[in-house]
Amino acid sequence: MSNLKQRLLSWMHGHVFAGDLIITLVIGVLLFGVTGGITYNPGLLFDLKPSMQMAWEAAMLVPLLIRRWRPQTGALLCVALTLAHLIFGPCLLGADILALFMLYSVIVYGNPKNTKAFIILALTIGLLASALIAWTMTNGPLLTGGKVHTWSSWNSSNPNDTMVTEDIIGSIYTGTSMSEVAGMMAQYMLALTPIEVCIISTIVMSFWHRARMATVRMMRERNEAIAARDQDERDIAALAERARIARDMHDVVAHTLSIIIVQSDGGRYAGTHDPAVARNTMETIRHESERALHDMQRLLGVFGGSPHADYNDIDNLVEQARTVSPDIRIQRSITGTASPEQLGEQASTASYHVVQEALTNIRKYAGPHVDVYIKESWNNDSFTLTVTDNGRGAAASIDGHTPGYGLLGMRERIESAGGSLQAGPRLGGGFEVMATLPYGGKEPATDETGEQYASEQSESCNTTAISSKAKLSDEAITRNIAVSISARIPNQPSEQTQETTQSAGRNYRSNALQHLRITAPNLRDLLKSLKLESVELANTSNARSSNWVERVSAWTQRHYVLMDAVGALLLVALLNPMSVSLFSDSPRDMQLSRAIATCCVLALAVRRRFPETCALIVFVLSVVQLVFLGSIEVGHIVASLCALYSAVLYGREHAWRWTGLAAVTCSALMGLKIAADQHGYTTLFDAIAASVGLTKPVSATASSGAAFFTGVMYTVAVLMLCAGIMAWARWARSSDSNALVLQAREEALMAEQEKQRILAANMERDRISASIQAEVTATLNSVINQAVDGIRMLDRAEAQGKEPTADEISTAFKAIGEQGRAALKRMRELLGVLRETGFSDDTHAGSASELQLRPAAPLEEQLQRVSR
Fold first, then answer.
1. Which band of pLDDT confidence, cut at 50, 70 and 90, is reported for residue 490?
2. Averaging pLDDT over each range in 68-77, 165-174, 440-449, 687-696, which range is the top one?
3. In angstroms, rounded to a whole number, what is the distance separating the alpha carbons of residues 683 and 686?
4. Is pLDDT at 256 greater than 80 in this prediction?
5. What is the DSSP letter of 520?
6. Please, what is the Cα angle at 506 between 504 and 512, to 5 degrees?
7. CB 57 within 8 A of CB 95
8. CA atoms of 156 and 150, how far apart (whole Å)
């Protein structure tokens, strides 16, 4: 059924002319039926027979055929036919009302640049028509000397075009003075003033609807764009996951390997004559390697990442660096009041990695006996972290050192947290890294509708981070806790996304709890939730300037809750003075019935914001009304139908199920109430009470059969009315012509797209983790094995009761150092594969086949291809 409806809607959108043809035929039949009895209708020049009038009526239907297919052509044709029939045909035609539809169509569907010209033309034709009609009705046809006839109608029993009477109405031909003729024409023109009023009203309605159509059209295009870029979003998510893994691998593994290399080089000299120092150093190397192996496994494991240290762990990092490299002197100073709780989780993590990477680079490139200064500056709204040294600086590249991915990853983390990073050699020697981080982190940049800017998707996919979870559930992708995997990838954090979607299995640090405050919504947020933000975007993004009608239309769409509230109050004010009840009741019950009807109408104030709640309120009040009260207010009926329509149109996808059941219930109660009234009971409750013996039965005013038949007829009638309302709402929901429905659909598309991004990131991690994890495990195990071999050598010497020679200790540390350097080189090559080889899915197999991880070519082969 849904597919049939979609095909029908698609056919109607694609076959506008066919739809207008059907409408024109229906209007033509109705028009001929209404105007077929006209027997007197003179023209400006001639007195025409009814058959000629019908021919003019048929001709005026032609522009209606092309009113949407060729709106401007149809409008000009309508103008030509109107002028023609005003001069050569009858002065008035029933089809003249269609000129208003043509004016509406040319404003709504035509070129906006020509709108002003058509409005001026319409007003001019309206004034001209008023003048010509007034002249004709006052003086009669010019070429007949004012003589007119009354003919038999074309559908009468008399022969067609048979003259019935003949008269002369031409006052100008009977000696009437021109002043009197002018006065009579002025009276006619005053009576024809509604023509201009109708034209102006049509213009206002057209501008109003054009603004609404512009909003709907732009929201529809946005939905189509979201659906169209789904594959691109998944590709970006896959690339971002590769970048995240590469960055985290660098932070976890490469940092550890640099420590191992420094330890092995130091142990080679310090432990040569001290086996205890040599053993402790080798144990440290083995422990660090095992920890890196464990962190790497978590990095590529089911959770998509490992928990990272944050600002509070910088002290431990500094102490570790002092222990590993005693010749490096580190000083840390803080300016201002340190407030790490003001940093967002992502910014806190980024600050740790800045210090970590800076110290790693200092150990690798700065040279021996280096002074390091870590300076922190805490301001009112930001935190600046500076790490400087007096090492080799720019001279580090002389011996062949090339920049790696550490600074790139550092910059990614800082920028994704909303900060900025500057890094480079100092003029006086040494190197400086300065990072500035705002308090509270940074949200992905969005427009007023919450839609991320997809135009920046092409920006540096390797400069981003994105995180995901293997466990996908609808609860994890709800509107309130949806993962913000932004299309604007450079601003999207990885760890923050992990923290958002992973609700268990993680011990959060105390400073993260500072951001979990539960606060009451302020007035601004409350008012914002009652607006449709997309409407203003659609209106202001239009290249042409909008007029006041379109601006008011866009404002009312945006503030739809306010407009519903105003409409509900106006409806109460309109219905209360003219309150009409369908049944008689006591004055007290009548007042109660009116109060319930007023509550139902007031509930319509939230019919679009909380449609199902509104429908539930009206349903409950309707049951009370039908069961316990005798009268039924017209306002109650109007509110019930409006609430039913709103719940089906604006509510959840399957809201029609419970609202349909509620409609069936109310219809049955209505039928029973009618049957009870036929039996003489004031309320349905009285009839129920009498049937169970609680009260004394009353004498029936109608037979049981007649009462039953009447009740069934009312039940069927009400049920058919409710079914028609629900069908209308379902049709409107499927026709993509309602801004709120399109807004809800956009949110659903975004949620589904976010789920698909998560899935794509998970799949990408699964694709690369097997090969990468095996490679990194082998690399780290080789270092561990070398350290274990050295420890066993020391154990064997101790078991034999002798000290190992200096050459043996030096050789063991040399082997560890060489293995560590080889492992670090290998790690840089692996990071290059991740950073620079693009996608690993089959979709892009033809674009860079030599760089794919799938089909699963060995990493060795990939690295060889990249190096060539």
1. very low
2. 68-77
3. 5
4. no
5. P
6. 110
7. yes
8. 13
Cα–Cα dist 572/642, whole Å: 14
How far apart are the C-alpha atoms of 313 and 839, rounded to whole Å?
35
Classify each residue of 89-115 as buried b or exposed e, where b means 16 or more C-beta atoms within 10 Å of its C-beta: bbbbbbbbebbbbbbbbbbbbbebeeb
- Bridge pairing between strands 382-389 and 371-378: antiparallel
Top pLDDT among 624 and 39 is at 624
Distances (CA, A) of 219 to 375, 532, 737, 750: 50, 12, 10, 13
The single-letter code of the amino acid at 543 is A
**E-state strands within 342-457:** 371-378, 382-389, 420-425, 431-438
Contact criterion met (CB below 8 Å) for 240 and 763: no
CB 314: neighbour CB atoms within 10 A? 21
Q: How far apart are CA 622 and CA 600, in angstroms?
A: 8
Q: Does the N-terminal peptide bond of residue 368 adopt cis geometry, omega within 30 degrees of 0?
A: no
How confident is the model over 353-411, as pLDDT tens digits?
Answer: 889 888 888 877 777 788 999 999 998 888 999 999 988 775 655 544 455 567 777 88
Helix (H/G/I), strand (E/B), else coil: 147: strand
User: What whole-number distance in Å separates Cα of residue 697 and Cα of residue 784?
Assistant: 97
In this prediction the pTM is 0.59
Q: Which two tokens stand for residue 750?
A: 């975004």
Cβ-based burial of 160 (10 A; exposed 0-12, middle 13-18, buried ≥19): middle
* Distance (Å, whole) CA 432 – CA 354: 11
CA distances from 196 to 11, 100, 125, 199 (A): 37, 11, 10, 5
* pLDDT of 540 above 70: no
Using alpha carbons, select from 29, 79, 84 the residue that is nearest to residue 56. 84
Q: Average per-residue pLDDT in the chain?
A: 75
Residue type, 670: M
Q: Residue 21 in contact with residue 63, Cβ under 8 Å?
A: no
Mean pLDDT, rounded, for 490-501? 34
Phi-psi region of 369 (alpha: psi -120 to 50; beta: other; left: phi over 0): left
Q: Cα separation of 40 and 30, whole Å?
A: 20
Edge-to-edge strand list for the sheet holding 371-378: 329-335, 371-378, 382-389, 431-438, 420-425
Provide the pairing of β-strand 147-151 with 382-389: unpaired
Instruction: Reduce the secondary structure of 654-667 to three states and give it as a string.
Output: CHHHHHHHHHHHHH
Q: Residue 853, SS3?
A: coil
The two structure tokens encoding residue 829: 């090559």
Alpha helices in 475-547 (DSSP H): 495-501, 523-529, 533-540
Q: Which of residues 17 and 84 earns the better pLDDT score?
A: 84
Output the six-digit token pair for 52: 């000629």
Q: Name the burial class of residue 786, with classes exposed (0-12), middle (13-18) and buried (19+) by CB atoms within 10 angstroms of its CB.
A: buried
| C-beta neighbour count of 825 within 10 angstroms | 12
Partners of 430 in beta bridges: none
For the record, the structure tokens of 653 come out as 């996808």
- DSSP character at residue 633: B
Closest CA to 242 of 849, 829, 828, 831: 831
CA–CA distance, 184 with 187 (Å, rounded to integer): 5
Task: Give the model confidence (pLDDT) of 729-756 as tens digits.
Answer: 998 888 878 888 888 888 888 888 887 8
Surface-to-core class of residue 641, CB atoms within 10 Å of its CB (0-12 exposed, 13-18 middle, 19+ buried): middle
Number of Cβ within 10 Å of residue 26's Cβ equals: 10
